[in-house]
Batch of 2 targets.
Target 1
Amino acid sequence: MDTPGLDFTALGLRGDLLSTLTSLGYEEPTPIQAAAIPLLIGGADMLGQAATGTGKTAAFALPILERLDPDRRSGAPSALVLVPTRELALQVAQAFASYGKGIGVRLVAIYGGAPARQQIEALRRGVDVVIATPGRALDLCDRGSLKLDSVRTVVLDEADEMLEMGFIEDIETLLAKTPDSRQTVLFSATMPKRIDKLASRHLRNPERVAIAPPAKRSDDVPRVRQAAFVVKRFDKPAAAMRILDAEDPAATIIFCRTRGEVDDLAQALAARGYQAEALHGGLTQDQRDRVMGRLRSRAIDVLVATDVAARGLDVDHLSHVVNYDLPSSPEVYVHRIGRVGRAGREGVALSLVEPRERRMLAAIEKLIGAPIPIEKVPSIADVRMMRLERSREAIEDILDDPDQQARLESFQEIVAELLEDRDPETVLLAAFALAHDAAGGDVEDDDRELSAALDNDGKRGLPASWGTAPSSKGHGKAGRGMRDAGVSRPASGKARIWVSLGRKSGVTPSDIVGVVTGEAGLKGRDVGPVRIQEFYSLVDVPEAKARKVVKSLNHCTIRGRKAKVKLDQG
Ligand code: AMP
């Protein structure tokens, strides 16, 4: 927030749309939004070059919503968005629904492979925006259910994909059914000749807006180790935690796109024993200063932030940047990773990439002039191995350090006593267990296979080189909180609280943290680790506060159910 950035208010959007954007946690428009929104509100035709991940959906959806007649009564749609796939139709419809919830937008997604009845029914009730794949749209036009004569705006989204899939004729037939006076907007990630031809036939003096892959390599790419992990959105929190566990960073900044994501992830990390806090534009200056102070003094080691809030942030000891979401442009990626690897230190930049964001990753690779290796999300077995390895290294360091010898000798007597009637190997095993627990302990299996979700459809649309999508297959189950979950007893100074609701009731770690901080007034950083079991949950809190927590939580409501709470006696 140090440097003022672009502002949604400057783009000509009305108040109720602006408040929706604030509630969604969007802090500033992406470059394509800043360029496209004013043009489209002004009624211009537009040829936009932008891939998934740039924020292109909001770039056309917000102007369409802005231009809707506030007193609309007609049942016929005033906007038609054509997309290549059913998946994208649903995604775009979801985006319209969230951006348009404040103005009661009526929409329908129309796509093949599903019964037409519901879609026809929705059209009959009346809609403002139709998001459709070309084939089914044409079909419903022919049946008389979809009428396009009131359409004011047509968007061709991912036009290159639609042409690739052979939809050109359907698109042209549909365009012919719309009024000549319409506004036409074409978005495409690439601009082959066929797109230009399509545009010259159907767009009128289009404005060109390109958030194109950068033409040349950037000269100031920081020297940091970079890697990417292909994960489904749903798996991102678990993947991020495993990656942090495997990396064991000194201090990390994790970038998310929205305030909501920042808050959710920071809470989930705190619930699993990380010293993590959120930084975004929704905090007051005072709150931000305090978070920054704690980061500088190393009281926290994970900062979860939006780009806007992290602007101007300058902390020398950061070792890792994690892109929980890819940024909306390659340039922002370079900017983000410039936060680490300062003063000759080794820096690491790790990115979680959704399968559909492959083009954005390619654009980033082009700008940095090097491929970013795709790595597997570590399996639970990998994380276990790495932790054991770290405990072993720590012991070897002591053995190899001449300065430690005197200290070791000071334990001779007690060790001799231990060995009196025990076998040395057993004593060593116990000592190793103690050291390992002190270093964070073992990890516990989770109940969910991270790979399962990926195998279902995470690989769809992956380029051949991504064929080996990250998978923990064959490595046992996937991980929950690693730092915490295997700890069999609370850490010293902490007490464990038992809560009568668990996974079966839909309870998540953030629910538990939320209720302990909300009802008992504890600070987020004092709460956790949290363990969610099938029928109950456990949460560790400072011993001194345990009774207060039990008292204030008993009979509180979590996920709509009354909870019973007691001190867990082990
Ligand atoms: P898209 O490129 O349209 O698929 O958008 C990619 C993602 O960025 C979606 O998850 C959007 O919700 C999100 N997004 C779009 N615009 C913004 C913004 N201005 N700030 C934060 N997130 C955004």
Note: The chain is about 40% helix and 15% strand.
Target 2
Amino acid sequence: MDVSKVLKEALVELESTDNEDSVQLIRVKYLGKKGLVTELLKSLKDLTDEEKKHFGASVNLAKEELLGKINSRSLEINKTSINEKLTKESIDITFPPPISHLGKIHPISKTYKEVIDIFGNMGFSVAEGPDIETDFNNFTALNIPEDHPAREMQDTFYLDQKDENNKPFVLRTHTSPVQIRTMMSSEPPIKIIAPGRTYRCDSDSTHSPMFHQMEGLLINNDANMGHLKGNLINFCKDFFQINNLKVRFRPSYFPFTEPSAEMDIAYSIVDNQIKLGEGDKWLEILGCGMVNPKVIENCKIDSSKFQGYAFGLGLDRITMLKYGLTDIRSFFNGNNNWLKENGFSLGRI
Ligand code: PHE
């Protein structure tokens, strides 16, 4: 049998293929168990030793060459088909995606933006602090004594690592430590808000171990409770878009403010739905008060010259109220269908 003839035939067939399947058919036809080249090798047994040497060598060479050509043809075909696919399926990334493919803004993100806008218009700038805090910033400087219930294990997440005072770091339980950081690092007048994540060891439909607060702090020479109430009432009317929103301030206690109050907004239930702004039921949305002079002194500011107010707003709570959402956990379980239904389009934010 003529080795070179078989090889030539195989190469001609290979040249004329244009898809991977026929390349594989050629591989089987020549190199498979019953393939033509394999048959040639099998025929060696009928030859003399001398013939075997020459014939064997030439069949093996042909086999090698054919194998190499088959592999490179296969690579070539794959490359062409990938390129074809790429040209055919290419997308114009400058083209706007269909509405159904657009992402949605999370309700909490929308609230973030709105509260920053509203307080920004009142002259507050945004301050920040880390989620992991020192015991001093989260508690001590805020006049929260060692034995205060807020320090107990069921509320606070403690970390293994200790700070320079040999106290364990904590996940901040409120945004109030940003008050301390700001007063320590800047001179009055101070007028900041600090939205951010906060953590408490608590979980049910209205509590999540990670939630959001927004701190407000104003320090100058003459701030008073009237200014505080006025600003908060204006904020709520603007945020909830209700002009004659019914609110009340209830006396309360926080170690870091004196006097302290909590702000409630009125609501009623109409047709099983919560109606905000009127009625005889009350919902608490924030804590506030005049900054305790002890806290001002802890931050090395002269409390005989400066005074101010602070507030801490629950961002998840006001978002749930505004949009009638009942389970805080739905904010954080990453369900895209929920987001599609309850999120906001970019154009509307
Ligand atoms: N830090 C308080 C809380 O988490 C809220 C608060 C902030 C109260 C500022 C008064 C002043 O409940």
Note: The chain has a mean pLDDT of 92.
